[in-house]
Structure formats: C-alpha cells, structure tokens
Amino acid sequence: MNVTFHFRSYETSGLIMYHKFTSFGYVKLYFDKSKLLIELQTENIKQKLVLDNFPADRFNDGLWHRCIFSVSTNLITLSVDERLVKTVRLLRIVTGSVYFIGGIDPNDLSVVPDAIGETSISGEFYGGFVIGIFIYSRK
User: Fold this and answer.
1) Taking a C-beta distance cutoff of 8 angstroms, is the pair 139, 22 a contact?
2) What's the DSSP call for residue 109?
C-alpha cells in the first residue's frame, strides 16, 4: 500500500487518511494535538499501535507538505517533506479497495464497517486541503 499526496492545514486535529484492510485491521493518518500520527491494527498487532514519527514537528502550519505513506510486509514508511522515517514491525496485511482521504462523515459511518469498534475516529473531518492524491495498492 502506497499513498502519496500534498496537504496543508491549521487545524490541531483531524483525520487525513483511513484505510480498512481486507485482512483484519486498519491504518489511519491523522492530526492529534497538532501532531501527525499513524494508528495501525493488523492480524499480528491486535492492540492498536500509535506511531509518533515526528515528535518535535508540527505540520499544521498552513504550508503545503508532501506526504508519502507506505505499509508493506514488516515495514511502515512515512516521508513528509522528503524526511523519511521507517518503522519495522511484524506486519501482515491485505489491502482493501476503499480509502478515505480528508475525513469520514460521522453521520454515515456505515461506509466504514466496524470502524467504531476498531478505532476512535476523533476529528472525523480534516480542516485543510489535500491535493495530488496517488494510491497504489497491490493485493
């Protein structure tokens, strides 16, 4: 799974991307308290895992940022503005066909099966802009 896009925002919280795997689990990229975080749950990671790959950085500065986000067997990579961070974990995923970019309508969560049971979707809406979206997902 590889997702590339540009984003900008002034918001301190909000869902940027959510993807439910065909296999058990999901991945989401979001702002929480101005921090860009990754939340992940897979067959091997039953407890949700939250990654804070840029602990000192804030990307809600209103500037455009380029994001490349990838999840593959045993590897998570996140690059923001050409700064790459790799996380190695035992992962086994099968990607699905639906990606939510820029938020989820809290009035229609039926489009995200089991999302409420799996993850808190705080900041369902992303108060910013996302452009140049490219998704590559191989099953």
Assistant:
1) yes
2) G
Look up residue 67 and give its amino acid.
C
The C-alpha angle with vertex 16 and arms to 137 and 81, in degrees rounded to 5, equals: 80
pLDDT digits (tens, 9 = 90+) for 15-70: 888 888 888 888 889 888 889 999 988 888 878 888 998 988 999 999 999 999 99
Edge-first strand order for the sheet with 65-72 is 83-88, 75-80, 65-72, 2-9, 128-136
Distance CA 35, CA 13 (A): 8
CB atoms within 10 A of CB 76: 21
Instruction: Determine the residue type at 30.
Output: Y
Classify domain 2-136 at the CATH topology level: Jelly Rolls (2.60.120)
Residue type, 111: V
Predicted local distance difference test score (pLDDT) of residue 127: 73
Model confidence pTM above 0.85 = no
For the chain, what are the domain ranges? 2-136
